[in-house]
Design a protein that fits this description.
By secondary structure, the protein is α/β, with parallel strands linked by helices. The protein is built from eight helices and twelve strands. The chain is 40% helix and 20% strand.
Length: 235
């Protein structure tokens, strides 16, 4: 069973697609782009999976062998008004079908053939709209981060950080005791589209650790061997 995840960390994605080749293609690429994907082939399976998995986003191929994506969207929406739903249409729908889908709660509609990069951009767009705005001020122990002014302090003393050091700190401070995988940090801080063999995260984390430690924040920016980084052991 798929578990729901926080924004940006292996977000749970439900994919209902009856064509095995298309489903396999999307599962592979969406997984490579950081989503935890559960793929199903029919409307009934999609409804069961949506109830159990509580996905962060839903992709519905249209049509499905045992129902329409519009009907599935409406039933999912009746259970969870927050989860974004994108319909991937086979190309036979008309304007009335599309309007009916939006009336049932569909967030976006994409007709085939479509470019995968466009689909990915649309998924990220609906996720951004569905996610709450991050707080302007983050606090973790003695460390305080003001996103608006880009000011960082440790026990009130200012710490000067370079651009990516600041963004890395913001990501770690958003959930200070959670381990962020390096792959996720590369995607969300540096914009890498796939995993890469690079020491970028390690070098920036090392500089960030030294600067925070020099200001009095000891034992921070912790390397969890083989996984990634977290800001603090505990708060």
């Amino acid at each position: 069973m798929l578990a729901s995840h926080a924004m940006g960390d292996g977000q749970a994605l439900l994919l209902a697609e009856q064509e095995p080749e298309n489903r396999s293609f999307l599962e592979r690429h969406l997984t490579n782009d950081g989503f935890d994907v559960v793929g199903v082939a029919a409307a009934g399976e999609a409804l069961v999976a949506a109830e159990r998995a509580r996905p962060d986003v839903v992709l519905l191929g249209n049509p499905l062998p045992d129902g329409s994506a519009v009907d599935v969207c409406g039933r999912i929406r009746s259970r969870d008004r927050r989860v974004p739903v994108i319909v991937l249409d086979a190309g036979g729908a008309d304007m009335i079908d599309r309007l009916r889908a939006f009336d049932r709660g569909c967030d976006d509609w994409l007709a085939r053939p479509f470019d995968y990069e466009e689909l990915l951009a649309r998924i990220r767009a609906v996720l951004r709209r569905a996610s709450p705005e991050p707080p302007e001020r983050l606090e973790a122990g003695a460390i305080a981060v003001d996103r608006g002014t880009r000011r960082v302090t440790v026990a009130g003393a200012a710490v000067a950080l370079a651009g990516k050091e600041f963004e890395l700190l913001c990501k770690l401070a958003s959930d200070p005791t959670r381990v962020f995988p390096k792959e996720q940090l590369l995607r969300e801080v540096w914009g890498f589209r796939s995993s890469a063999r690079t020491r970028t995260v390690d070098s920036h984390a090392s500089r960030l650790r030294r600067k925070l430690a020099a200001a009095g924040a000891a034992d921070c920016v912790l390397n969890v061997w083989g996984v990634g980084y977290k800001l603090l052991e505990e708060i």
